[in-house]
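Subject: for your reference before the review

Hello V.,

The reviewers asked for a structural picture of the protein, and I figured it would be easier to keep everything in one thread rather than splitting it across files. Below is the amino acid sequence we used in the manuscript, unchanged from the supplementary table.
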Amino acid sequence: MVSWRRRDPSRTPARRPGEAPSDLRVHLPLLWPAGPDGPVDEAALRALAREYARTGRGVEDLLADLDRLCSVLGIGASSRMIETSSIAWADAFLDTVGGVAPQPGESLAEVERRLQGGAAADVRLLVVSWAGRPDPSELGRVVTEIRRIFPGAAVAEQAGAARVLAAVDRDDAGPRTDRLRARCAELGRTTPPTVEVLQGPTDAQPMRALFRDAG
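And here is what came back from the structure prediction:
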């Protein structure tokens, strides 16, 4: 089992990993899957940076939060981390303002990654689904609302299955889901979609069906 002790407690304020802000804590095992003594997962770092850009958070916020995560582990943010995350943030920001949508498979992989990570117990799967075929713009509006109501969530649009999936923080899942249902009812041009929160291992049959390629 991976140990999450700090490398050098004298280099950081006296706080434990469990005391990190809840919206950041989920990223610890994703960024350092081998533990604090292991290398940072650059794919997870780039995914985090892209999510900040797509949800309107500045690169200064990203770097400040990375510093906070590193301080919890008793390490410093390396120049490589700063460069990698800054470039990923800038690329995603340019795509966002230029109207270039992220690749659906990449977003879906990030949702599944969050659910399978070491902090999976703190993550829930949010599923928004339509009985019929909604207007494509309606899916886009729901994605926007999810990112607004659940800051930091990983969101994937499955247009072929008339569905949106999101990995959200467990503590946010209850109170914010009702807000999302209300917004979906206001946004929809037809019958509002169903909004539900699931939990459980991603290798269970219901989960596998959701993550199956929907075309």
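For the response letter, the relevant points are probably these. The two ends are 37 Å apart (CA to CA). The first helix runs from residue 22 to 25.

Happy to draft the paragraph if you're swamped.

O.
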